[in-house]
Design brief:
Elements lengths: L6 H20 L17 H23 L7 E2 L2 E2 L2 H14 L5 H19 L4 H5 L13 H7 L1 H16 L2
Antiparallel strand pairs: 1-2
């Protein structure tokens, strides 16, 4: 469960866990970016597309919120639920098929910068007060951010560590 957090602590947590993930990605030569096994049949390129895809969704939700709109979660045509998660994940991975390793790395880096910019305007109340952000219902915003950033990175870090160690 996600505890209360200040905006500064959130940015530090996201940055710290992203640094760990990025260090692992740097350890993978371009020639191995598409080798399967980094997460099931996915290579590192697909994992990066998956992570940046979920970051993009989070940023879209935050942008809609800033405009006073209710975002369509997860995305238009993808109502919140396990089936949509599977479809979105498959789409993120498939969408990376034509992306060269350098492009995947660049998109991953650009996503970090955009994400940190999207988090910057959030206040401690925005993050922690249940119901402050209407589309979160009676939950605070922080768990939505955590599950699409540092908690998500923590899910993939051990997979990548294992995959790298086996190579």
């Amino acid at each position: 469960m996600t505890e209360r957090m200040t905006p500064e602590a959130l940015v530090a947590m996201v940055s710290e866990r992203r640094d760990t993930l990025e260090a692992l990605v740097r350890a993978v030569p371009d020639g191995q970016m598409t080798a399967p096994g980094a997460n099931g049949e996915w290579g590192v390129r697909e994992v990066l597309a998956h992570i940046t895809g979920w970051e993009a969704l989070l940023m879209a939700w935050l942008a809609a919120t800033a405009r006073g709109e209710t975002p369509e979660r997860f995305a238009p045509g993808y109502p919140a639920g396990a089936e949509s998660i599977d479809r979105l994940n498959a789409g993120f991975a498939a969408g990376s098929a034509a992306t060269p390793p350098a492009g995947a790395r660049a998109a991953f880096a650009a996503s970090r910068a955009a994400l940190l910019a999207a988090l910057a305007p959030l206040s401690e109340a925005d993050l922690n007060e249940p119901g402050r952000i209407p589309w979160t219902g009676d939950r605070p915003l922080l768990p939505y951010i955590a599950s699409n950033t540092y908690e998500h990175y923590d899910e993939h870090i051990p997979m990548l560590e294992r995959w790298i160690a086996e190579r």
